[in-house]
């Protein structure tokens, strides 16, 4: 699109490029604007589904932070329940599971945990007359909110739960739950009121889970090994050799406090990012840094390193300021590297929990932090996940020179796509995705970028030919993004999500 303000910037860039031509023989921004990038997902921000084996060495690796557990008493056959969602004593009186019967773990170590209930209170013990009652009232976990889970040897689905007073919890008459079991614990009989059947109802496998799961002694070694082997120099050569010209690199906020980030995070990801810049420069690739995990988590998902599904980002100014400081730090660090092309201020903040107002406030501050160091690094603004209007950032972006709206395009994760046939899916991309991009591509508007798309869908049983048509159709539509696109992701145990696999197996040729 002919965009006045960007044209003007382009002239500035061409001018400064020519200065560079004269001085170093190099041209900066030679790819304006046809970015063909691949995401380096699951590298510096862990996503367990991309590389499940990363979690193999964790003891009790089904008891990770945020995993919701449900406990069914073997004596009365009923589920433990946080009545009213929390704030009251627990009871073992429910026959079906709702959110109130789920207990999200906070892991202390391999066997010791806090349990968080629906309204974010923690389970604890409290003296009530003669009995030690089990309640869900505390807003923060301390000694009396700490429990040990003891599994039956040889049958990990049976557990006992030991409270801080040294007693196991048990289910009494009238379904009352107390922490005072004094019976035998060597047997696991069906009439034992301290025995529960545990079921894990959903899991999260993010950076918090992997680092806290291994704990402070093992995590540094495991993570550094992962960073050094998952993505290596050869991958950058492969990327450059196969028609791509850029990488989008998800990073976590803790990278800015390397080498000693707050626990459970581990130092060393900054060194890996340094290497990525070195190799990008060597193979002529551009780098888009993407703040994928912001302090407190901006969407509650594992890929933003939420501890237990909560979303805290934006609820306090501190989380915004901390994020701006990360952007400031990263921009300053790489501003002199000719490969540094763009920085994305935050990835997929989730609507409506993150309000447009909060996001705009942050985007303005983050933009300013980047411009303090550089007038030419592009500033990417991710659309909100779940926002109904894909153009909601356009008015803001119009006022921010060199800003880019990042629009993610998956044909997944929604019931809408479940029963679509291949032609229907292709048609949906041609019409819907094309229309949405065109809505954002406004005169005098910002640049556009499809920062995440992939060649997987809900359709089952697609042939190689189907997948190739899927890719082709998407590429044709994403051409409308004025800056370009980035495939999600380079490597993944799920083949269609792995650009490396797709290229090596002849599904994609660029
Ligand atoms: C998991 O929890 C949800 C409530 O969030 C419940 O509807 C579902 O039945 C549970 N799954 C199992 C297998 O119990
Ligand atoms: C786990 O933490 C609890 C509570 O701090 C402690 O008593 C226990 O010894 C720890 N266990 C291990 C295996 O480190
Ligand atoms: C998809 O098809 C199945 C089987 O025909 C049906 O049960 C289901 O309701 C459909 N789902 C949607 C979202 O249309
Ligand atoms: C694209 O499809 C989504 C639902 O899948 C819908 O909410 C949205 O309005 C559509 N956009 C356009 C421009 O038609």
TrEMBL record:
Organism whose genome encodes this protein: Corchorus olitorius
GO cellular component, as recorded: actin cytoskeleton; cytoplasm
Name of the featured protein: Glycoside hydrolase, family 5
Keyword tags: Glycosidase, Hydrolase, Signal
Ranges of residues in domain DUF7910: 60-200
Signal peptide: 1-25
Domain Glycoside hydrolase family: 223-492
Record-linked SUPFAM superfamilies: (Trans)glycosidases, Actin-crosslinking proteins
One Gene Ontology molecular-function label: hydrolase activity, hydrolyzing O-glycosyl compounds
Gene Ontology biological process terms from the UniProt entry: actin filament bundle assembly; cell migration; establishment or maintenance of cell polarity; polysaccharide catabolic process
UniProt record similarity statement: Belongs to the glycosyl hydrolase 5 (cellulase A) family.
Alphabetical list of Gene3D superfamilies matching this protein: 2.80.10.50, Glycosidases (3.20.20.80)
